[in-house]
Amino acid sequence: MNEYDSHRIYDIVKKINYKKTENLREADCYVLNTCHIREKSTEKVYHDIGRIKKNFRNKKKPIVVVTGCVAQAEGEILLSREKYIDAVVGPQSYQTLNDMILKIEKKFEKLNSTNFDVVDKFDKLNQIKNSNSNVSSFLTIQEGCDKFCKFCVVPYTRGAEFSRSLDELIKESKDLVKNGSREIILLGQNVNAYNYKGKKLSHLINEIASIDNLQRIRYSTSHPLDFTNDLIEVHGKQKKLMPLIHLPVQSGSNKILKKMNRRHTVEYYMNIIKELKKINSRIEFSSDFIIGFPGETGRDFDQTLALLEKVKYINSYSFIFSPRPGTPAANMTKVEDKIARERLTIFQNKAREIKINYRQNLFDKKSMVLIENRIGKNDEFFGRDEYSNSVIIESDKNLSGKIIEVKIQKGNQNTFFGEISHKPKIERKDFAA
Ligand code: SAM
Ligand code: SF4
Questions:
Q1: Residue pair 86/79 in contact by the 8 Å Cβ criterion
Q2: Domain 366-420 carries which CATH code?
Q3: Nearest ligand 2 atom to alpha carbon 223
Q4: pLDDT tens digit string along 235-262?
Q5: Were 329 and a residue from 54, 150, 242, 317 both cysteine, which residue would form a disulfide, CB within 3.0 to 4.6 Å?
């Protein structure tokens, strides 16, 4: 979501004649778009500012603005702890960015814009065209969260659930496709909670799928409680919808899920997986896990391992519980650090084993890869298969924006290398030549 926001922030500041620079040492203005989900992300902000300060020691100070969820959660602390920061702008206040930068340009004052005016934000953003021309583009359709899992800052930093209007999303999708996008990844903190005047995510997917030249649709991140039958059914019918679903579970223990206030059980979660597999057996899953949540015993952890084994996630993102100030879990008694770290290692080793096994099974098989861009100076192109796996191929022609059949030859944990098994047929004139 921050990547989407960063593109839109750039669309905003272009209006007051700021341009992107590749030279990180000579910007007039730095916008640090931040994440607050875990503690490390906050520390990164201070490190980045330290680097900017060092670089500008003997030069005119650039404007430094911190945007995103760290700004929202720690705005005043940031401004008083780090004098180098000129302004903090929360994730629902990007529309105020230009006014703030212009004010800072004129006279030096510290500014704080952290209101939750998400309606005003999207009203203003809708008037500014999305200029992103990536083959694969993000599109935020929903923001905020009403679920209040006990560990999570999102309801406090992004505010209540809000769904953007269907019309504006269809328009923005058409703009993205006109710019060259062939894949759209619909985003939301709880993307499947999308509901605009009764129109749900399944409806939006079908609407967007009817856009000519759009080849692929994905969405992230889903909550098990919002995985309704209409969404399951769309996976059986809509060919443009890719067969990888990111469905965070957090823990394999019902006791811990309850303590987390997830409001679903392991059985409920497994039933969604069963239904999805029934409707489309090609579907694979990825998930998020929190290891060492307060109260997690060895038995609870074993249940998480058992779930990992059972579902055989092709990607598992695991994090040690990080107490976030202001959330209820921050006051709970922590699992000893050493034990949590040991469990994380055990978990990640198992997840890696499953992943390697899955990936080795793809060797010598064919995959449909959407080519995104050329990499480096050679004839190498980067793309992704239907399961979002990174694939690199060689080609003397620019294949960006095309779906190519590729035979996977080798690979490591992150990237496959393959060869084109069928030369692409170029059917539509407006595909990149
Ligand atoms: N809405 C999604 C859901 O319900 O699963 C998750 C969105 S959250 C922004 C992304 C992931 O960060 C979560 O799935 C969780 O695994 C992780 N996370 C959030 N808060 C955390 C915390 N306090 N400590 C460790 N991991 C955390
Ligand atoms: Fe955070 Fe997701 Fe829980 Fe909302 S549902 S509080 S975003 S983890």
A1: no
A2: 2.40.50.140
A3: 5
A4: 999 999 999 999 999 999 999 999 999 9
A5: 150
